[in-house]
Amino acid sequence: MSHELTPSQTIGPFYWGTIVKTYRAELAPPGVAGERIELVLTLHDAEGAIVPDGLFEIWQANSHGRYNHPEDRRNLPLDAGFEGYGRASTFTDGSSRFGTVKPGRVPWPEGGLQAPHVNISIFARGLLNRVATRLYFDGDPANAEDPVLKAIDPARRDTLIARRDGKGWWHLPIHLGGPKETVFFDC
Amino acid sequence: MDKEIYRRPASGVHPANLSPEYKSTVGRAPRQKPVVLPHTLSEITGPLLDTERLDALENDLTKQRSGEPLGERIVVHGRVLDQDGRPVPKAMVEIWQCNAAGRYHHAGDQHDAPLDPNFYGGGRVRADADGRYQFITIKPGAYPWKNHHNAWRPAHIHFSLFGPAFATRLITQMYFPDDPLLAFDPIYNSVPAGARERLQSAFDMENTRPEWALAYRFDIVLRGRNATPMEH
Prior knowledge:
Number of strands of chain A: 9
Largest interface: A-B, 69 and 83 residues
Radius of gyration of chain A: 17 Å
Low-confidence stretches of chain A: none
Oligomer: heterodimer
CATH architecture of chain A: Sandwich
Order of helices and strands of chain A: EEEEEEHHEEE
Helix content of chain A: under 10%
Largest sheet of chain A: 8 strands, mixed
Number of domains of chain B: 1
CATH topology of chain B: Protocatechuate 3,4-Dioxygenase, subunit A
Number of domains of chain A: 1
CATH architecture of chain B: Sandwich
Distance between the termini of chain A: 27 Å
Strand content of chain A: 25-35%
Number of strands of chain B: 12
Strand order of the largest sheet of chain A: 3-2-5-6-7-8-1-4
Mean pLDDT of chain A: 95
Mean pLDDT of chain B: 95
Structural class of chain A: mainly beta
Shape of chain B: globular
CATH superfamily of chain A: Aromatic compound dioxygenase
CATH class of chain A: Mainly Beta
């Protein structure tokens, strides 16, 4: 019997209130180690207009650089109550806010470490497949040696770099198309 | 560390992001080729949602309100497998759908069809150790949408799966066998022929419950691991 992949389809516009009743915008309950951060992701279409019916999911390591997953077998601490997963709709202003901790560095298969990053999945009406990207932190000295960032056309690298506002919140606009199209990954 | 843990999907499986017959793709589909990422810990780990506590009735969409929803009660069941046919144990399966009249319980759905106060349309379940899952629900209706003149979505149930890793995340739609609307649906037909048929559930007489409900079977296949991961 063949086991061929199930094809992808769009999330459509009407998921909210059903799957997203399990809304998780606060990833780090009190007591979780690390630097508290706020992430604001904003979704734009090819014309630059905001996408009010999208869904963001994030997945990240804890502040020690450990993923809460059996594949991560390194002897690093796990934090009780911190899974590293968040999900939120973009709502009417096209943005989602997540409260979390800054992830630590995780290894690169050929050796060395990746810069701190958050993995992002994006779903929306009009997107037939999940699109995936990463968020890196402006000013982090590890960015200069990150193998993923280094492999990207420097003209487009900035699309992955979140910047801080006056409140210290990290903002990353994500453009599905157009001249500012974000770098997406086949992962 | 393992390299290239999960197999890359072959061409001819997933829809093209830009599928202009489905008009919303035109302004939203990325145009640049995605950058291929090697499989690092970031891609081979992912949310397992194993601390998520599910209520016993979350997989019975006919029992989430005070009364029974209107419509044709059905059993939807199947297995979550990988490409080698191995079960994905304990996989979280989430679904959502419109009611029997073709209306979603969602403020954005303005289709002139009745809401059913006894049907909310969302459910989830954790597959068992063999990857088996089951929902009780009502058969969703077809509904019109504004993609083109006289556009109708075939009856469908949305499915969301995580699988074992960030790389295996999948959202899809399950259709009903031999629905005449499938031939006209640009979302279904965005998937290449030969693969789109896998989105049709199978009518399952054997698991039909006499005097109670018809059954449909929908197996979901997520990305498998490479047969011989390279170690170094």
